[in-house]
Every structure is written in structure tokens, then in C-alpha cells.
Amino acid sequence: MKCEALKVRNAPAGEWIYTTATKDGAAARIYYSAAEIAVHTVAGELNVGRESCRTLISIVCAPTLQRRFIVRFWLFGLIALCCVALAAQAVGLEITVVTPATYEAVELSTIFEEPNPYYVDRAYVINLVPDEVLEEIADKEAYWIKTGNDDKHNADENQLTFEVDANVWVYLAYDRRAVTPPDWVTEGFEDMEVDLVTTDIPLGVWKSIEEFPAGLVQLHGNDFGGGAGAGSNYAAFVVMGSPQAVVAPGKLATTWGQLKK
User: Fold this and answer.
1) How confident is the model over 97-142, as pLDDT tens digits?
2) Alpha-carbon gap, residue 9 to 201, rounded angstroms
């Protein structure tokens, strides 16, 4: 079997045509240009990238059964890559509150856009969200974690733990009346200097200095590490961060202290 390369006079400038005859007599041609390669066979047309030129020429010039196997293998591989890409794009944010069991994670829109309580044990709602915060969360998956205001004097090291399957930014809604927020807040988060207006007291918005990686996230109690002046417990909300592969639950735990390092 012979594989020949010819210049076609009536072809567009810069294109070459490779011709061959298969063992069963069916003609196969490859048109090669700077943009793409079009493979014309009895099976139809395939458009592939320029880098596959040499591979495809060798496929076309191979014996019939070998060529069919290679082409099918190549096509199945291409389909598999497309499926992986689509699956990666479909990955969303999922969150599970581990402790305390009474806390609850809800979609952020149900708190920011509807008059729903932001605590599990109080009826207070948010009346106004600053534009700066809305810009931060625009077109991103996000969840609000309803904490309990009865825990406002909790000083546990790991008072709130939750699990996420993607990188996230963590935001605290912390009592603006606090004269001195605790160290874990001031060292692990940055004050956005805007407040959520509520039916109770203003809640200052603090954003984590770095993203928390997928896995288990642990936050301290409202009074852990000192601080003064906070008369209400913090709430938190998490926003989808940079894309990354899904990790198995329970593989990683991150605290604000680890992020500092």
C-alpha cells in the first residue's frame, strides 16, 4: 500500500493534500492547513488539531483493520477527555456542618434576599447587604452558616466545624460593637469595613486572608483568645474559591492558625 503527498492546484493557498488507497480500495484524503486537518474517509469527516497531523497520516496509511482500531481508540480517548472536562465544570460547592449539630448551612440567597433568620435561635433578619459584599459573591456559589446566639460567650478552640468539597473564602459576620475582636479574628481575617444591617445590631464583615482548602474547616468560639465588647455570636458564610479537584471527605482539617503559616 502506498501513501503519497501531492500539492493540489485548486486548493486554497497553503493547503496540502495527502492521498492514499486503502486495502479495500476506499480512498482516504487528508487536507492539511495552518488551521486544521480535515480527514475525509468513507466514515465521514473528522476535524482535529494541527499537532495530530503526523499521527493521522500514519493512521490513514496503515492497513485497514489496524487503522480502524487506532481511529476508534483515538475517538474513545477524545470522548473520555471531553467527559472529564464537562465533569470538572459541573463540580459545585457542597457544605456540611459537623459541629454543633444544631447549626445549619443554607444557601446564602435565602438570607441575603429573603427575610429569614440568620441565627438558629433568634428571629433577627438582615435588612441590607453592602454593595462591596454583593460584588464579592456575585455569580458564585455560597452558603450561610446559621450559628446560635446563645453561644456568644463560647471560648472553645474548635467551636464550629464544617466540611466543604472545594476551596472557599470564609466570611465572618462579627458583632460590630466589639471594641477588640479576638486574635483569631484579627489575625486570620481582614475587616472589610462594611456592615450587614440587621433587625438587631450591625454585623461587621470580615474576610479570610487566604482561601481555606477543601476539607474540614474549624473556627473558634466567639470569645476564644480574648477580645472584648461582643454581645452577640458571629455567623459565617462561605463562598466558592478557586477551582480544584474534589477531595474525599475527612482528609484535611484547616484552622485559621494553619493558614497563617
Assistant:
1) 999 999 999 999 999 999 999 999 999 999 999 999 999 999 999 9
2) 80
Q: CB of 39 within 8 A of CB of 30?
A: yes
Give the amino acid at 119: Y
Distance CA 259, CA 76 (A): 42
Helix, strand or coil for residue 245?
coil
Q: State how far the Cα of 118 lies from the Cα of 103, in Å rounded to an integer.
A: 11
Sheet order of strands, 16-21 included: 3-6, 16-21, 27-32, 37-41, 44-48
SS3 content of the chain, % helix, strand, coil (to 5): 25, 35, 40
Indicate the length of the chain as a whole number: 261
Q: Tell how strand 27-32 and strand 37-41 pair up.
A: antiparallel
Q: Which H/E stretch holds residue 46?
A: strand 44-48
**Greater confidence, 82 or 44?**
82
Give the number of other Cβ atoms within 10 Å of residue 202's Cβ: 16
* Domain coordinates in residue numbering, the chain: 3-90, 95-260
d(CA 231, CA 224): 14
DSSP structure string for 2-43: -EEEE--TTSPTT-EEEEEE-TTS-EEEEEE-SS-EEEEETT
Alpha helix segments (H runs only) across the chain = 53-60, 64-90, 109-112, 131-137, 183-188, 256-260
What is the model's pTM?
A: 0.62
